[in-house]
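Hello,

Following up on my earlier ticket. Below are the two sequence lines again, exactly as submitted.
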Amino acid sequence: MQLNNRKQGSTSMRKIKKIAPALAAASCSLLSVASSDALARGEAGSWDFDVATLFYSETDDRVMAAEPVFSATKTFEDGEVLNLKAVFDTLTGASPNGATPSVTPQTFTKPSGNGTYSIDGGDAPIDDTFQDTRVALSASWLAPINRDWEYNAAFYGSKEYDYLSIGTSGGVKRYLNNKNTALNFGLSFSFDNIEPEGDIAKPLVEMAHLGTSDSFDATRDGSSDSKTIIDALFGVTQVINRNTIMQFNYSLSLSDGYLTDPFKILSVIDETAGANFGGNLLDGNGNNIYLHEARPDSRVKHSLFWQTKYALSNGDVIDGSYRFMLDDWGINSHTFDFRYRWQLGSSYLEPHLRYYMQSEADFYKRYITESEYNSGSPTLTEATADYRLGDLDGMTVGLKYGHKLDNDTEFNMRVEYYLQSSTGDDGFGLLKDQDLYPDTKALIFQVGYSF
Amino acid sequence: MKSLSMKLLRTATVMTLGSMVLSACSNLGVKPWERDVLARAEMQLIHDPVEAGLDDHIYFSKEASSGGRGFGGGGCGCN
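Thanks for your patience. The regenerated structure is below:
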């Protein structure tokens, strides 16, 4: 027996001797994977990075923007997730100032009061002094409380040359029905402060013409102003079946404070029968009269949002969403968004279609008439010609391409075309010959890398 | 008195509707071992947060609506 045992023992030893190098090699390879390739995306202990740059360019020498983003996400052992994000934004170009085009050339005082700019007859009045650089930093934290509850908190700050915004938000999530249902509740508070060069313009006062007896300072009202925004969000996320997930949100947003755009003006239009009927009303010095815009100092918005994602058996994914927004400025909007992710092995193509339609604000006016101007004592208390508060439709068509280099690394790029069309009051007299609602066309290009 | 009864009626309606929705939800869903498809990265409601953030910024600065999916917030002198 002993001999046998000794024999068996020596056989076992030989086997172990053979297995040992293999085990050592396997351990080494495991260790090398662990040390060089770190952890999979989203796995406990991992740091995941997403970098992207967006280029946005409008036609007709209007706004151009370059926007790099750096995002880092750390997942901890107990399921906590920390995200740190930095966004840099450089804007140049020109933006519509709100005035109507005219048969004659127009001269406008820069919002800073430092000089003027001129627009040829028939051309859309755009302010080409528009440029800014923005830096935005944010941090968010998400953590489970127990099996059924989770909380999140976030801080945000952004700074431009003349604009500061800081904000914080927090929320809780409650899982129900075996985690097939999740109820979300969140609150957000933001504080924004604007300090434009040339100070804040007084509401509905005449734009000062430089080089005349007009006083620029008399049209100003303090060097800065601010607003607060409180948002509340209640949402339900529901797993429908193995391939379908759905989300439904209601959100309420309360804005309070300075909601006017200090760079926007309105044209005052001559209503007197004659050669200038429908042209710019002139002041005593023969200059066109423009008024600085004025918006209400509060806004209440309600939004309903629905999203569904559905995975097809071939690996493709359909993503559709709809948002309805309603506010006390008289605006309501509908947003439809559709994406189809077409899986092609380790790559994918994702066509994107977005359609947006919005009604105009109660106080939106493409221009102010001579009678509303009322010889300098306007009959209106609020008015804006900002086309973004007018009746408009927006259409985005795009295509994204992504390629997975391995399980945790992806390169992607997208190209999109965005078209905005506005409609509204076509005016009278000379205004009838002008294009009061030019389209806005933009090209969007983004390249991104995740690792 | 009338406004109080209206408030109570409204509260009861909301609670009843909420309960109905939640009980309807309890009949939906999957077992824990059936989450393979939903666990895929591209099945997350916001699959690419960086892209979603950039899009929010574009449309916030060009349209009168913002938020819905998340907070509308402030944060930019572009609107």
